[in-house]
Structure formats: structure tokens, C-alpha cells
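Ticket reopened. Same input as before:
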Amino acid sequence: MAKLGDLARLIRSKNAGAFMLTFDVMFDDDATYQRVLKSKVLTKEKFAQIYQVPEEEVLFFEHEAAKAIKISIPRPYVQGARDDGDAYGGQQHAPLVELELPD
Amino acid sequence: MTEVRVLSASGQIGSGFLESSLERGISLKPHVIACDGGSTDAGPAHLGSGKPHFSHEGTKRDLRLMLRGRAKLDVPVIVGSCGFGGGDAGVAWMRDIALEIAKEDGLKFKMALVRSEQDKDYLKRRYREGRITPLNPAPPISEEIIDKSAHIVGMMGHEPIAAAIENGAQVVLAGRASDTALFSTVPLMMGAGPGPAWHAAKILECGTACVVQRKRPDSIMAWIRDDHFDVEPMDMDVHCSAQSVASHTLYENADPFLITEPDGTLDSHGSRYEALNDRAVRVYGSQFRKAERTTIKLEGAEMAGYQAIIIGGVREPFIIRQLDSWLDAMRDKFAARVQEMFAGRIGPNDYDIHVRVYGRNGVMGKLEPHADQLGHEVALLFTITTAEEAATDAIAKTFAHFALHYPIPEWRGLISGIAFPMAPAHVNRGPVYRFNLNHIVTPEDPLEMFRTEFVEV
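Engineering reply: fixed in the latest deploy. New output:
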């Protein structure tokens, strides 16, 4: 079993403004990018399950030129609000690093 | 064929760039030198308080080199979102830095200050007219929300900056502005293709964020023509690849293909990225679709009270296994002490004690899939917030002592259940703010929400 974190060039999360969070999963080469897409370990539905958010709130994009999967959701807490623990939104991607792909 | 050369000094003024990189950019004869100066990215405090994010020293060093470069070439310098929040206080701060530099270096220029802080009566009128609409998601809006905001800024497009330059400004210090508009203004004025101009601007606005391996904030340049643009970092040891440039449209955008600006949308669905060599990339096929009406995004911050924090750790297994009930009970019981201290003047709804548990879900909150797992130690971050600075201090210092000794049933006798790494245990951090708007205004024209002042330096 390979982990998504071992296959990706970069997995990151970040604010997209103060009200949205966005996740980028980027690959070095097309073969790995296609392998991950085909494995379906990271889909709109899977993301919604992992992060416990409604699937209809998840925006899911495949970006060929960047060899990247991109996902955006409304921020769970508005940036800088009392309950927000991540001002830049930069540490919300961690569960994706551990996702396992079948061999 | 039109060619407009745009030099981006860095991703943020004050974060720095190599002097050699900027100099190389200057030697390539840009038509404009620009740099972004702000963002909402660091939270609502900068907009709310008017205090800048980067240092005076760092900002002055960066602006000085940009102004010296400008003096050599006689091209505009544009700095946007001055002071980070982009309010009037930020523009005044950057103006004063520019004046200091001009005096010290004997520089002369015509400077435009383009302010973007919004008049509350104007916004309430536009709200009543139904011309303020929410983005998704947005907090609720009302005239009361507008009134209680500490500061509200509108995010200007390229038009107010272009108007300042047309009126002779050689240095433009803008309040809150679309990051991309700082870089697209001159190319659009000189007739470059709007698709390449806006897409190049999106790449330039973060400085060297679009390179393969970013070493530090630094300068980058674009050559913008009718149907494509080229981009190249100014440090010869730094590389762009087709993929690294393509990837940058993903950064900080919810949608990687469509980026909304005040007067339209950049569409990069059809963009093609080609390596020119091992350092530079050419991008074709970007489109800009002009909107029927200009929309100006609002950012607002209101005060959320005065806050103190307490940081502590727990290592004892008996406490950790009942952590939530212990934390809930100590806060419930503490209410009686607040009642005593203030003789009822501060009631249970007038103060807030929040606790974040690191080692469980302190980072991700309700998104955390492993919220049921606790480590052998946890960190507790308490935030105490009230509307009065003195009350916050009084509650925080009393609560730290109360929490330290709050009992658990397993032990008989006085316990000290929290390890404080600092003395005193609490830290007052003054006023705190929250974002309260994510809305757009539809003005009559792109200039009406912005005020320009010219200063002969």
C-alpha cells in the first residue's frame, strides 16, 4: 500500500479568502496523477466522508496542466473567529497525506 | 505587437527580495514596478486595528529599492493593500515611509494615495437599494453590522489605479486592492491582451510563489503580449516550469480555472503552458470575460472584545481520561466566582472562556477525523474574552488559579492539574477582531467607492 503523501509532489491546504478552505494535491508526473485519479481514493464523496462535511459543499477539480487535484470547501469556522485554530488554513490537509492507495 | 514588461518586486512588500534580483529586473526595463502589500490571510486583526503586518524597517528597505529603480527608469511604482488590511491607516503608514525615503534619498515624484475605506452611510444606502449582495458563504448583513464595523474596505480593481496614473501619478499607494489589479493596470492601459494581462498578474502577485522550489520571497518579471505572456524569476538560480506556473492558479483560489475580478473573470480553462527554457514559461490561451457590471468586494472587521490567553499542559492520565468533563465542570463552577467578583455586573453571557485542546483536535476542530484519540499529554489553550479590558484581565488571572487546582474525584487533597510554561500564566492580548462581511457592492462606476489624493513629493 502506498500513501498519497509518498506519491504527491505537494499536498497542502490554504485559505481561499476568509470564508473558504482549499486543498491542492499535486503530482510530479502524469502517470502518478492518473494512477491516483483512477484509484478513486480521493473523490468528492471520499473527501466529504473524511472531513465530515456535506458532499454538496465540496468543490472538486481535476487540473491536467498542473497535474493536480483540487478541492475547496467552506471554512468550518470563519478565519480568525474564536473557534478557528488555523488562521492561514495551512494545516487542514493532514488526513490526505495518510490516504492509502491499493498497489 | 504590444509588449508590456511588468516587474513584481516580491509577493509582499516588507517580506523582502534579493537586491540583485530587483536590479536584474530593473535592467530589463519594465514598464511598471509593482508589489502587493496586504491580504486577509493573516486574519482580521490588521483590518480591525489598522496595524501593519510587516515591519517598518523591512517595508522601508523594500520600498526604497523600488523607488530608486523607478527614478532610473521613470516608470510607475504601484503598491497595493498598504499596511496589510488596506484601510486608511495603512495608506497613511506607507505614505509616511515613502516620504521618509524621498527626503533621505532626495527623490522627487508625484504620488497618488488611493483610499478604499468605505463610508458607512454610503454602504447603508447601497444596502437599502439592494446593491449589496452576499458571496457564498457570507455572514448576515444589516445596517447595524455596517455601523458596528471597526473598518470596512472595498477591494478596488485596476480602474482607480489607472485613473491615478493617467493624472500623472508616478507612485501609487493604494488601499485595499485586488492583488492582480496592481499588475494588470499598466498592461491594460498599454493595450496588452486582457486575458494574458490578468493571468500574468495572477502569477506575478505572489512574487516567486510560482517557481519550482521557492527559496525566499523574491522578484519575478512578465513580458505580456497580445495573446500570451512569458514569466521568469529574476534570481538566475531559481526556475519556473510549465507545471509550476500552471499550479500557481490553484493557490489560494477556491476554483483553479475561474478567478473573479471587479470587472470580469479570468478563465484559464484553455491556458497552455510551455517551457521556453529551464527558467522561463510561456502561457497562451487565457481569456478574460468582461462582466456586465462592476462588483466591488467588501471586507469588514468588527471588534470581538478584549482577550487574554492561558497556555497550559496536562500530563496526568486520570485528568486526560476525563478531560472534557473536567474542563466543562471547572468553567461551570467558575461562574459563581465571576458573580462574586463583579457583584453581578458581569453575568454569564458577558464573558467567554473557550478552550482548545492540542493533541486531539486543536488544529482541525470539527474537521478532525481522529478527534477520539488523545496523546499521553495535551496542551490547553484557553481564551478569555469580555467587552472590557480590565474585566478580561481580572477573569483571566482568577481563572488560571481556579483551573490549576480544580479537583478530580480520583484524588483526595489539593491537586495542581495544569502545567503552565509561563509566569504569570495569562497573557493579555488587547482588542481582538472578527471578519463580518463577505459581500459585493454593485456601484454605478468602478471609481465611486475610492478616493484619490495627489501629493507632490
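Chain A has one domain: 2-84+91-97. The CA atoms of residues 1 and 10 of chain A lie 19 Å apart. Please confirm and we'll close it.
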